[in-house]
Structure formats: C-alpha cells, structure tokens
Write a structure and sequence with these properties.
By secondary structure, the protein is an alpha+beta fold. It is 49% helix and 17% strand. It has helices at residues 12-23, 29-44, 55-62, 67-79, and strands at 2-3, 6-7, 50-53, 83-86, 95-99. Strand 1 (2-3) and strand 2 (6-7) form a beta hairpin.
C-alpha cells in the first residue's frame, strides 16, 4: 500500500497508526483530514521522525476553518497517542510533530 510516494510496507510505524485509526471509533472525519494533512507535511519534510508543520498549512489542507476545532483535534490525537506535538509559538518556525 502506498500513500502518494510513501511506501507503508517500509514505514511500519505510520502503517500501524493508520491501521489503528481506521478501527478507532473515537476518530472523526476531521481527525482523519488532519492526519492526512500531517502526512503531506511528513512527505515534504523527507519522512523524518519529527517534521515541521504550520497550523495554517494543516488547516488549509484538512479544510478545517476553526482554530478551536484544529486545537481540539490536535489534543485528541495527542491524547490517543497517535502523534506527539511540540508547539513553536514562533511565527516563522513550525511546530514539531512525530508519530506516536
């Protein structure tokens, strides 16, 4: 299975997370859209363990229009252990995200 240029056979951690999200009843379509946006940033960042994201970029790709909804979904994904998230608070530097 591939998502864009990501080969999930080689990236077992991401494959495990995506498989878990598929069967997790707590995950909403908004959460899935946000995960998709993170995968796009992950690809652009060279598929490293930690990658930079911007709130505005994630919101644009995932089509989330409310910052409250964005933060709620980020906290949910963190709480469920799907992502680790380190906010930047700097307008030019993106926040760091890692899988699990």
């Amino acid at each position: 299975m591939t998502i864009g240029i990501i080969n999930l056979r080689k990236n077992k951690k991401l494959k495990g997370i995506l498989t878990a999200i598929h069967s997790d009843d707590c995950i909403s379509p908004i959460d899935i859209a946000l995960m998709y946006a993170m995968i796009m940033f992950y690809k652009q960042g060279g598929e490293k363990d930690f990658f930079q994201v911007s709130r505005s970029g994630l919101m644009k790709i995932s089509k989330i229009s409310s910052t409250r909804t964005y933060h709620k979904s980020i906290k949910k994904l963190m709480g469920l252990g799907y992502i680790s998230y380190t906010p930047s608070y700097h307008p030019k530097f993106g926040s760091l995200v890692g899988w699990g």
